[in-house]
Structures are given as C-alpha cells and as structure tokens.
Amino acid sequence: MTTEQPHPDQQPMHWNDMYLLGYTPIDEVHEEFVGLVGRMQQAADADLAGLLAEFTRHCEEHFGMENRWMVENDFPPRDCHIDEHAAVLASVHEVGELFAKGELGADVVRDLVEHLADWFPKHADQLDSALAHWMAKKRLGGKPVVLRRGLQLR
C-alpha cells in the first residue's frame, strides 16, 4: 500500500508551540485536531475513510465542548464562533457521507483536509484564542501568558 504525498505547497500539520493558546483543555483538544489533520494529509487513500470517520467524531466532541463553554460562560462573540463550527462540521459530515457511499473520490477528501489545514490556524488565532482568554480569566482570574518560539512539540 502506498501513501499519497501531501500537497507540494503545504507540509503536513504538526503540533507546535505556534498553536498554543495557554488554556490547557483547549490546547489538548487542538493538539488532537492537528494530529488527525496531519495523519490524513499523509494517509494512503485506503486509510482515508477510517481517519475521516475518526476526525468527524473528534470534531463533534471538540466543537461541542467549545460550544458548551461559550454558552455556559456567556462568551460574548459566541454566535459567530458556534456558526463557524457548524459550517465546518457540516462540510466534514457531507464529504464523509458521500465518500463512504463512493460518490466522491479521495481527491475531494484531500481537498477538504487541505482546507481544514488552512482554516485551523486562523480560527485558533482569531476565535479560539479569545475563548481561551475568556475561560482562563473566568477560571483562573487572568489571561494566560504564552511564549512561542516556533518549536515542534510532538
């Protein structure tokens, strides 16, 4: 079984300190997200269905957890954040279902994965960082301090 090479313009995602937000529960779930995207980027076509199913379950739990925190803690910009999660999850579900039925090829799954790899850093930096700050302030009394040096962590 051969592994298809990642898109030449983009290296597979790896967890590094540039993704750290300083709130451990979010950082842990983000590490899992990044790891799954990286695995899908490097996977053989035959392994994509299983990885996409695993990734879908991860997103359901990951986004559900963040959505609950936003509602339970009265996070002010929650609506656009929750809407973005819903849009991403809808795309993941749609591609997964059509791929499982054989109505889409691996190339469409790989395109989705590359879009996820492009989307995540901006989402984390713009939306999730605000949530991490909010949660840290609510739970710990202040904003987290994060030192980033561009180091691969795993």
Q: In what range is the share of β-strand residues? A: under 5%
**CATH class call:** Mainly Alpha
Give the class from helix and strand content and strand pairing: mainly alpha
CATH architecture: Up-down Bundle
Shape: globular
Tally the helices. 4
Number of domains: 1
Major sheet, described briefly? Answer: none
- Would you tell me which CATH topology applies? Four Helix Bundle (Hemerythrin (Met), subunit A)
What is the first-to-last residue Cα distance? 26 Å
- Quaternary organisation: single chain
What Rg is obtained from the alpha carbons, in whole angstroms? 16 Å
Element string (H = helix, E = strand) = HHHH
| DSSP strand count | 0
Low-confidence stretches: 1-8
CATH homologous superfamily label: Hemerythrin-like
Which terms summarize this structure?
mainly alpha; globular; Four Helix Bundle (Hemerythrin (Met), subunit A); disordered N terminus; 154 residues
What does this entry look like structurally?
The chain is an all-alpha fold and 154 residues long. The protein has a single domain, classed as Hemerythrin-like (Four Helix Bundle (Hemerythrin (Met), subunit A), Up-down Bundle). 66% of the residues lie in helices and 0% in strands. The chain has 4 helices and no strands.
